[in-house]
Amino acid sequence: MLKEIQFMSKITIYHNPACGTSRNVLAFIRNTGVEPEVIEYLINPPSRERLLTLIAQMGIPVRELLRIKGTPYEELALGDLTLSDDALIDAMMAHPILINRPVVETPRGTRLCRPSETVLDLLAEPQ
Fold it and tell me: Quick check: pTM over 0.85?
């Protein structure tokens, strides 16, 4: 049991404290007795390489990580389906608010945890 808890203690959340879903996911993680590494990605955005790694680990298209609401998505015309993945990543690097949240990385996998309950599959301890 202790080995499992130590194993699961390596949890990282890319977090926005102003986001209710992100706060809920952080609470789910802490409820297991683990204090995750909390990266406030608006203050400390991931590098381009790190962002690409997270997207690959999640197995999702780049476009699926884009946040629309409360961002410059429309202003930057990011709905244009002809834009390349590189162009979308460039936009996220220039405007980290475009990165949807929260992204949680654990030894069990990496996911965009929307809705909040999505994180439960990544946690060793039940709620």
Answer: yes
